[in-house]
Amino acid sequence: MDFALSESQQLLKDNARKFFSTECPMSEVRRLMETDTAYDPALWAKIAEQGYTGCMFSEEFGGVGLGKAEFILLMEEAGRALLPGPFFSTVALAGAVMDAVATPEQRKKYLAAICSGEARSTVALLEDGGVWDPAHLQLASLNGKLSGEKLFVTDAVIADWIVVVARNGVFLVDRKSPGLEISKMSGMDLTRKLYSLKFSQTPAEKLGDSKALPKAFDVATAALAAEMVGGMQRTVELTVEYAKTRKQFGKPIGSFQAVQHQCADMYLETESSRSAAYYAGWALEHNVPEATLAVSIAKMYSSDASRTVGNRGIQVHGGMGFTWESDVHLYYRRAKASETAFGDATFHRERIARLVIDEAVASAGHA
Amino acid sequence: MDLNLSNEEIRFRDELRAWLLSNVPRDWSEWREKPIEESFTYLRDWQRKLHEGRWAAVSWPKEYGGRSATLMQQAIFWEEMARVEAPPMANALGLGLIGPTIMAFGTEAQKQRFIPKILSAEEIWCQGFSEPNAGSDLASLQTEARLDGRNYIVNGQKVWTSYGWVSNWCELVVRTDPNLPKHKGLTVLLVDMKSPGVEVRPLRQMTGESEFNEIFFRDVRVPVENTLGQVNDGWNVAVSTLMHERGAYGARLHPIFKRFINRLMELSREFPKNGHTAAQDPLTRQKLAQCYAEIEIMHWNQLRAFSRISTFGAPGPEGSMQKIFWSELNQRLQQIAQEIFGPYGQLLAGDSRAVDTGIWSYGYLRTRGNTIEAGTSEVQRSIVGHFVLGLPKSY
Fold first, then answer.
1. Are B291 and B374 found together in one domain?
2. Angle in degrees, 0-180, between the axes of helices B319-341 and B250-268, rounded to the nearest 10
3. Is B1 a domain residue?
4. Does some domain include residue B336?
5. Which residues in chain B have their CB less than 8 angstroms from residue A256's CB?
6. Cβ-defined contact of A2 to B269 (cutoff 8 Å)
């Protein structure tokens, strides 16, 4: 048993860190977040050139064929860089759903275009009420057409295709289709834009039924947890650096225990989130029976931790932490959006309870 | 990254399982509740049996009677021991902390003299570290050793000594040079507890029992050849012992915590809460799930640390994070148990209505010590701040 990264995994992670810090430094993040879409085609092309868009998909569909454990590392580094734009929406979310539910022909068409970097996509799931469980959806397709509303859809205006989760299956809609109206929602995270989508008799192609959806959402959720780990990591780095250099009472504030212990807790929360995200990635890759439980544990823990790490980070930065100029609040904004995405800690604790309290009873009953 | 057991790890586990199947005592449950003074011979016999099977100190090098087990194999060892609910070993500190320190710093003669009897439980060991005025600030300790010919003359007092009452030997940290800075003037001595002038008194703790002792040293003569490591280099020797204490100990706790949370989930179906069972109560479910998740994360943190240690060597300061994690988690676990049991939670062993014969009321009180013993959470956070994150020293 070995929980350390392999040489090739470490290399992938190191290269990703170098790539993102060169191609998307904070100055670029700040430039993009002020735009309408937070999307830069040139940066996207470079990301695709690295093979990142096809990282976890099969070579059969133009992917690189690496595992989910590797993709987790990539997401962690993207999160550390606060990468703006549709990488999560396209690859971790729409790509994973297509990979799980679409026919091979559809995957050759749509997933391959994602792998090559030609196309961007996203998934429309939430409706009015904001419930993450697909069992509560209202929107359904009738005669190949969708009517209804979807909310909190990330990066919709730059997506070529929108994957729509409906009550009676998973559908693909061309963004340019008639009867699709996209409006901006003003979210806290400036690097990942949100939209509401209104479908009126919008033509849609069925990708498949919803049976395989939980598995795809598990992959997206684990990827999101890993991205949150990267954000926490950067917040810890920025905060420790600040605590070492900022002086008050003639000493670096990091020499005061009240400050130091905040930093120690940030480290503990970040490392623990990382352990859980890595384990979830491994469990998904190897299809172990507790994979879903592992994903919920990872998302549950990092949902709370990314918020508390941000709280502590801003607090240690003092007045500087409250300025627009400080980068910590940019990570903090992302953390809030990610905290609720695919279920917050409360949602996942209930999911864990169902798995470890209720199902344990059910299986004991069968025995 | 490969979280499956390797073939070698499976072989190790299967060999241990087979051995435990025919050797683990069946009557431990009858002894468990008795005071340790009564069960100590039992625990000593159990360790001797493990030693005969070469299972007493799997982490030790083969030439010292161990199996040169990797950290993963050690984790497997504790997992399997917990699975069959094996009794603990009598010489826990000798095996886990002091033996490895003697192997690292001892002379050949010391290793020959002490190691075999640690393994066989023939000689029980304790640690003389903390003092009434030296707890978190251990290096300020005042027990002094004055050189007198071929002997040190030791005077002072130690406190919070586990197994003091039954120990034959003590790893004792003393001040040999009061003129040097506090970390530099310390030396570790190996002290025969039967030496004239050694007095052991029980220390009654808030749970009502006496797990620990106070030890008084009055003009105790210790031969100079019983110095462990270099004179005035005792801080390094002591820190090596403490790292073992913080780093590897957590691995034993995962299977134990797992058993506790599973039992708690079972009990939650029996206790009423807000009109249904606790297992159906949304808030209780949230808390149980949080605790269950943290127990798993504690395990994954440990496995990741093991893989790092395998690459980089000895346990390092990140062991402090494990210590913070398990000790605070254990307290939260006990608090949830109390919330589930309501008024029954307070009932002590001996009361016929006590939950699980009182292990939970005991656990609630006992776990308050977890964030204090083996380095307080405050000290551990300062260690993480300074030694892991590189912040300036705060003390």
1. yes
2. 20
3. no
4. yes
5. 394
6. no
**Crossing angle for the helix pair A328-340 and A26-33, nearest 10 degrees?**
60
Strands B169-175 and B125-128: parallel
Q: What is the pLDDT of residues A217-240, one digit of tens each?
A: 999 999 999 999 999 999 999 999
Kindly give the interhelix angle for B359-366 and B319-341, rounded to the nearest 10 degrees.
140
Nearest Cα neighbor of A121 from A79, A72, A158 is A158
Cβ distance of A1 and B2 shorter than 8 Å: yes
Contact B285 A252 (CB under 8 A): no
Token look-up 């920025």 returns A238
Asked if CATH classification 3.40.190.10 holds for the domain at A122-208, the reply, yes or no, is no
Dump pLDDT digits (tens) for B20-47: 999 999 999 899 888 888 999 999 999 9
Q: What is the DSSP letter of B134?
A: B
Asked if B277 is an interface residue toward chain A (Cβ–Cβ < 8 A), one would say no
Tell which phi-psi region holds residue B32, choosing left (phi > 0), alpha (psi between -120 and 50) or beta: alpha
Tokens, residue B226: 């019983």
Interface of B with A in 284-313 (CB under 8 A): 285-286, 288-290, 292-294, 296-297, 300-301, 303-304, 306-308, 310-311
- CB contacts under 8 A, B 323-342 vs A, are 324-325
CB A306 within 8 A of CB A228: yes
Q: For B187-214, write each residue's pLDDT tens digit.
A: 999 999 999 999 999 999 999 988 899 9
**What's the CATH number of domain A213-361, 3.30.530.20, 1.20.140.10, 1.20.1250.20, 3.40.50.10230?**
1.20.140.10
Q: Is B316 on the interface with A (CB under 8 A)?
A: no
ipTM over cut 0.90: yes
B85 is catalytic: no
Can you tell me the distance from the alpha carbon of A55 to that of B356, in angstroms, rounded to the nearest whole number?
A: 52
DSSP 8-state class, residue A35: S
By C-alpha distance, which of B90, B154, B86, B75 is closest to B121? Answer: B90
- Point out which residues pair with A154 in neighbouring strands: A194
Tokens in use for A99?
């990979």
Q: Is B281's Cβ below 8 Å from some Cβ in A?
A: no
List B131, B171, B211, B245, catalytic entry: B245
* B283–A contact, CB cutoff 8 A: no
Superfamily of A7-120 according to CATH: Acyl-CoA dehydrogenase/oxidase, N-terminal domain (1.10.540.10)
Please judge whether B301 and A357 are an interchain contact, meaning their C-beta atoms are less than 8 angstroms apart: no
